[in-house]
Design brief:
The protein is mostly helical. The protein has helices at residues 7-19, 22-35, 40-51, 58-76, 81-102, and strands at 55-56, 105-106. The chain has five helices and two strands. Strands 1-2 form a two-stranded antiparallel sheet. Helix 2 (22-35) runs antiparallel to helix 5 (81-102), helix 3 (40-51) runs antiparallel to helix 4 (58-76) and helix 4 packs antiparallel against helix 5 (81-102). The longest helix is centred in the last third of the chain and has 22 residues, at 81-102.
């Protein structure tokens, strides 16, 4: 790993995760992870810090936090980072689908 993700990079990443297709989200996460050399665990933790600042509907936020916690646990246990990168993007895709159904959040 070569450094730690900057808050602005994470804000940009969070916006993309909530607004871009899954494939684009995975590609952007891989860019941070592989090209920038950031640890997936660091990216995940910073995304969590930023995501909880958004006023999501409580159940939507609870589901996202649970999904992020499960991914963090698997990473800590040595899971494949490519698979967990896709799982991280998918967790935000699920959040976006829930938000679209409920139309309730403020950034």
């Amino acid at each position: 790993c070569a450094g730690y993700p900057e808050p602005e990079q994470i804000k940009t990443q969070l916006d993309g995760l909530l607004n871009q297709p899954l494939e684009s989200s995975v590609k952007a996460l891989n860019q941070l992870r592989i090209e920038k050399g950031y640890a997936l665990l660091d990216i995940l933790r910073e995304l969590h810090r930023q995501a909880i600042l958004i006023e999501f509907e409580p159940l939507v936020l609870a589901n996202l936090i649970d999904n992020l916690a499960q991914i963090e646990k698997r990473i800590a246990e040595g899971a494949n980072e490519a698979i967990e990168t896709a799982a991280l993007a998918a967790a935000f895709q699920v959040t976006r689908i829930e938000l679209d159904k409920n139309q309730w959040f403020k950034i």
